[in-house]
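Reader question, answered in our methods column.
A reader sent in the components of a multi-part assembly and asked whether the whole thing could be modeled at once rather than chain by chain. We filled in our standard form and ran it. Here is what they sent:
COMPLEX SIZE: two components
ENTRIES:
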Amino acid sequence: MSWQTVIGLEIHVQLSTNSKLFSGGSTGFGAEPNTHVDLIDMGLPGVLPVANREAFYKAIRFGLATNAEINQTSSFDRKNYFYPDLPKGYQITQMAMPIVGKGSIKIDVDGSEKVINITRAHLEEDAGKSIHDLFDGETGVDLNRAGTPLLEIVSEPEISNAKEAVAYFKAVRQLVTFLDICDGNMAQGSMRCDVNVSIKKEADEELGTRAEIKNINSFKFIERAINFEIERQIRIIESGKSVVQETRLYDSVKNETRSMRSKEEANDYRYFPCPDLLPVVISDDEFNDIKNNLPELPDEKEKRYILEANLEEAEAKIISSSKTMANMFEEACSKTNDSKLVANWLVGDVSALLNSDNIDIEESKLSSNNFAILIERISDKTISGKIAKSILEEVWESGDDVDNIIKDKGLVQIQDESVLEEIAQRIINNNLSQVEAYKGGKDKLFGFFVGQVMKETQGKANPKSVNDILKNLLNS
Amino acid sequence: MSIQYKSIKNLTSMLQNKEISHKELINETFTLIESKMDLNAFITLNKDAAIEKATLLDSKKNDSSLAGIPIAQKDLFCTKDLRTTCGSNMLSSFIPPYSATVISNLENAGCISVGKTNMDEFAMGSSNETSFYGNVENPWGKNLVPGGSSGGSASAVSSGIVPAATGTDTGGSIRQPASLCGITGLKPTYGRISRWGMIAFASSLDQAGPMARTAEDCAILLNEMCSHDIKDTTSLNEHIPDFTKDIEQPIKGMKIGIVKEFDLSKLDSEVVKIFEESKKHYESLGAEFIEISLPNISLSVPTYYVVAPAECSSNLSRFDGVKFGKRCDDPKNLEDLYIRTRSEGFGDEVKRRILIGSYVLSAGFYDAYYKKAQQVRRLIKNDFDEAFLKVDVLMSPTTRGPAFEAGSKGSDPIQMYLEDLFTIPANLAGLPALSIPNGFVDNKPIGLQLIGNFLEESKLLQFAHNFQKTTDYHLKTPSGENI
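And here is the structure of the entire assembly that came back:
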């Protein structure tokens, strides 16, 4: 029997505001526990929240980029439940009137495009962290993260398999980084998602009972968790039983999902409008200001690269796929007129290194500035392409400054043609039999002479100059 | 010369004329406090800091409007470095690291906080009997309740220990004890005074206000208590007038509404008689009376007892034994920590309201209760809006009767909830309202309530001051003499 999978994602995006959603507390990552916590984050008696407008502006950018309805008036509700890292005993979220309504996003799965509709995106505060493994038999609570603004992006259940889910997550990540509303850092938990999975027979109108897998924070785990869950549900149904509606956790070590709590054990969150906060109204001026200053998005960049920088579509697509890559391209292009050269390096050598290390460009040691300098040195003929390649490899490992490597290792290209002529002449003199053979019609031997000159100059000779000089000497 | 029963106005002139030093005033205040410990009006005293501030005031010239005035602070306002219990065992050792805006405003104006007053636990009660720190005595009679929840504040002012106290009013918690203790208490428009640092009971209803011997003193206090506070988004960004400016203006030709739906026939006949006398008195001052219908007003008490518990059930969730306040001994696990901390930390009335609140917000009941209550609230507000097109203020008794004996309302909470029949509507509509003494039943004071339109505290104070200039109910003291 063939089963159809229905998947919906709830992605939590940590918005990159300086301060928290309802307090002046810092959102910086990695500080000593409980040092980025003010009175409000701690939920002390008598404190009151004040909404951070910057978070609204960032949420609106997301809405505009996904062609969504924007609710210029939105409001907050309380979601009540007890947990030690939830200081107030409720989370302030947007239930009834979210800032962003229905929108959509395009995803690319193995070259074919699909549109995933987004139900809503709402603002809410993050909880703190419970630390279970540091204190013997006791749990520690770190409230640094408590109150950090999150944008929860809820998709329609329109995703059909694990691959699409990953593509969707990637598309959202690409968008939020381009919009500069989230750093996209998954290892630090800047993006996490809950996955709703159910299966049904093709012909069934109604969706099957779903399981929600909580808090996954890597592409790999999303794919594995979903595939495990599909298998599990098929097994249950095919053995004549039925899937239970529940919340499950993905265990990446055992690669399995397991039950966290059933529907019966689920909290009744007792949502109601938060009486401490008036509805937040974004004025037309504020709205237009955000709209008119929306950063350039991947699609627009791709078109511009093809049109203005004469890139091939494939090249433009790769370069515009990541904000860091696009920034590298643009910065390097500002140092040279040869945008093709920049594109070749990014799509060629840089991408090859990324693939062989299996990392994202953000994780590499190659900075945008260092890359631009490398391109500049090729372009102004300080170094040859061959030398550049070895420098890139070195930078890739060490992150060292390109100019310092050139200086320290004496890699500056030999520009003085008389020096090259002298070397070329010496090589001709030392290889008279090859000269004879070349002159006798063995054209292929030309490469031998070029190679010898390059060897002698340790690759620092400009290949074109070497060609010209050798042709001149050998043909005379 | 004794400072007992002196008004703010009296004390300020005594200080300015050097009849008494700041330090002497504070020392005498503490002598009074210590001689009246049986009232149990205070939970925590602030003696050392108070004397220190008074000494400082003596050493340099000070132009602050309330320089050196002793004030008692309801123990619901956070006071930096001074224990704040909210009348609960849960916070029996809670020392806030910050002060409420209203406390800072008063202290910046020169007030000296002498201590924190007893109150119903988390402001839930109408007799001060729910306090973890014991009952408060009404100075007007042994074993009489002072009302609640601001019972300690009312008792401290009524007994003449301090000229002023802060209170909070969610359903009548300033006006009802003011009425039962024979003093003047004002609940301003919702949002007039910042809620920052007020421990929340029901956020959409809570409002701080002054309690004093006279309407004029309430106006003086209100001038300093109000501010637009960016730390409280429900704080109003409206012009704050000088509330004393118009109080001397006559009320001749102004209109007072009598609410048709307030059925006085069920009240003590003495209370009705006193109310009728007050009407006559206002008539003699030139006011006109108009009967006003507020068709939805009868829904106030049930509406209140859905909205307030709902908000309280959520507001009190933070008291979980994790971060501050009480934690039970040796919790076995997380659930045990929650259950025992909250079972031991909260009293019965608080638990009752948390249960009601959790119920009305729960899935499947929200629409029938909470949502419906908010809709009714809007209707009640609309009724008031209509009424204030026709009248300047509305008038009613503040309470159904005078102070009752502790324990006399028995175990039926509904009987206690009905105490707030006349006061709750102003909270639901966010309107200003005050209570002034207007007579005695068996030598126990009772109060007259005036409700004003949105932001019209000045008009209320004008009505009240005109009344007090021509009557002496507010001048009578529990010990029998007139001030």
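What stands out: The interface with chain A takes residues 77-78, 84, 86, 91, 94, 96-98, 100, 195-200, 202-204, 230-234, 310-311, 313-314, 316-320, 322-325, 334, 338, 358, 361-363, 366, 370 of chain B (CB under 8 Å). Chain B has 15 helices and eleven strands.
Send us your own complexes using the same form.
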